Write a sequence for this structure.
């Protein structure tokens, strides 16, 4: 009975039945080990080989246990004897493989009752080390049955049908392990604030806004000096901010404190190439702003101001977004009107070394109002005067950064010209507030954003030397070509139309900026300031 019922399942082909019978007897029934092997072979042959085998193996009438060995003489040249590669052998082999490798596993999986497995096979809390890290111990998975419906046994159905979590507030449940709870708590914290870095040690909180109040805002050049501070303000209001920057003058470390945040996205892209995004507002800041940087590749500067602005205007037109262009006081050139109001048309050399930037911004303003008049695009234009503050590029060659770096390193402070030319300086936080008010206000004509406090370059160098307690000497070099002799904004329009004026004094702003450059020098060791000529930005 053993041979009839069990060996049929494991016998793959007829010429291996001797070995199969022995293995089956060894594995399943130790009593068969005492049987006479020839009788077992005799019965297996009759069972598996069909009619032709019965002629060679006639039925035996003796009892199974008392049967003596029975040998059937077979002729090596008998044509009726099945060969090793007979059609019957190959058929049995094929059926055995089909059953053993395809059908049998399926039957076993369906018929075995896994609910009776020991408790160690179910999910359990992963072992941890002394430092709270999970070890790599493998786990046996508890299979599901018809009643589990893909739900783990430690999770209630109400936890799935009515989740108490969202992307902003992942509330830990009682059933979670301590490790999971800690991860959820950390994720909640990171989704509500910035990470402190060397450049941005202050932690900035980000509130949660409902969908109808949260805006999708694009900031081109958002990794630069002004752009990164604008990103901080928008993030602290709870909006979704996307930064587009090619890192020519921008630096990733300026926005590193937001890279983890779910509301922040960074796209490495050049604005001279079109981009497809869905946004509500566009702050278009992308363009080198310091003379050495925009003179390094003047053609690229022109393309950034023209083609870049054209691409952003096309995006604003397609998605019906409001766009703000950060223009510059450089469009006034070397002004003959002082202070400069928005109505002044300027005095610009169209073929000088600064013209790639000056004329590029003038064309960009023309594009803005052409799109407004022809296509109804909502536009805003800010004409920015000299700005300073933390995150200024150390090698941008501007007056503030050069003077501070030279004085902190006890190097000569260089003035290009006689030092009688005048400038006005505003702190970066005032500028960011002005841009924000202009974007969200109703006034759509150009607005000057600057500090009316005016300093001669010579007096400003002495002022910084005093604040840094430096022993540096002030030296005078040849004046740069087309360097403006005076620069001071008339901010009457800003006061009346968007209710803005600077709040931070130059002295207080310089204190923060000097402290910033001290940290930069501690990391860098030494910084060589950039001169007035064209120079590629250094990291």
């Amino acid at each position: 009975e053993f041979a009839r019922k069990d060996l049929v399942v494991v016998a793959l082909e007829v010429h291996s039945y001797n070995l199969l019978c022995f293995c089956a007897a060894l594995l399943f029934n130790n009593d068969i080990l005492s049987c006479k092997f020839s009788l077992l072979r005799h019965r297996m042959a009759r069972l598996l080989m069909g009619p032709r085998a019965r002629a060679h193996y006639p039925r035996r009438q003796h009892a199974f246990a008392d049967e003596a060995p029975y040998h059937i003489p077979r002729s090596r040249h008998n044509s009726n004897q099945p060969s090793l590669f007979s059609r019957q052998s190959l058929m049995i082999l094929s059926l055995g493989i089909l059953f053993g490798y395809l059908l049998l596993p399926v039957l076993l999986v369906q018929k075995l009752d896994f609910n009776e497995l020991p408790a160690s096979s179910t999910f359990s809390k992963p072992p941890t080390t002394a430092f709270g890290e999970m070890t790599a111990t493998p786990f046996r998975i508890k299979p599901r049955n018809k009643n589990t419906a893909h739900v783990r046994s430690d999770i209630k159905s109400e936890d799935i049908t009515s989740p108490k979590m969202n992307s902003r507030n992942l509330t830990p449940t009682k059933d979670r392990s301590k490790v999971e709870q800690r991860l959820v708590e950390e994720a909640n914290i990171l989704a509500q604030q910035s990470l402190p870095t060397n450049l941005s040690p202050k932690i900035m909180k980000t509130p949660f806004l409902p969908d109808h109040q949260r805006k999708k805002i694009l900031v081109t050049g958002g990794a630069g000096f002004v752009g990164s501070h604008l990103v901080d303000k928008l993030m602290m209001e709870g909006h979704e901010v996307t930064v587009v920057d090619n890192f020519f003058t921008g630096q990733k470390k300026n926005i590193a404190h937001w890279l983890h945040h779910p509301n922040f996205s960074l796209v490495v892209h050049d604005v001279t190439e079109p981009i497809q995004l869905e946004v509500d507002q566009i702050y278009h800041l992308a363009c080198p702003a310091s003379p050495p940087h925009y003179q390094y590749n003047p053609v690229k500067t022109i393309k950034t101001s023209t083609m870049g602005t054209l691409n952003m205007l096309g995006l604003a037109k397609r998605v019906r977004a409001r766009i703000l262009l950060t223009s510059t006081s450089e469009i006034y050139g070397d002004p003959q009107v002082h202070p400069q109001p928005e109505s002044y048309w300027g005095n610009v050399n169209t073929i000088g070394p600064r013209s790639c930037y000056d004329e590029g911004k003038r064309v960009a303003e023309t594009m803005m109002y052409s799109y407004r008049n022809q296509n109804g695009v909502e536009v805003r234009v800010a004409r920015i005067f000299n700005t300073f503050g933390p995150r200024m590029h150390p090698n941008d060659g501007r007056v503030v950064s050069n003077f501070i770096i030279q004085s902190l390193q006890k190097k000569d402070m260089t003035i290009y010209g006689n030092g009688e030319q005048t400038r006005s300086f505003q702190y970066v936080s005032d500028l960011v507030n002005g841009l924000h008010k202009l974007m969200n206000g109703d006034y759509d004509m150009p607005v000057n954003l600057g500090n009316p406090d005016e300093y001669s370059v010579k007096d400003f160098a002495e002022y910084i030397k005093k604040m840094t307690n430096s022993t540096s000497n002030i030296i005078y070099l040849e004046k740069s070509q087309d360097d403006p002799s005076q620069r001071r904004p008339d901010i009457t329009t800003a006061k009346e139309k968007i209710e803005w004026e600077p709040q931070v004094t130059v002295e207080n702003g310089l204190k923060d900026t000097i402290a910033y450059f001290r940290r930069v020098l501690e990391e860098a060791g030494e910084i060589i300031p950039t001169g007035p000529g064209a120079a590629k930005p250094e990291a």
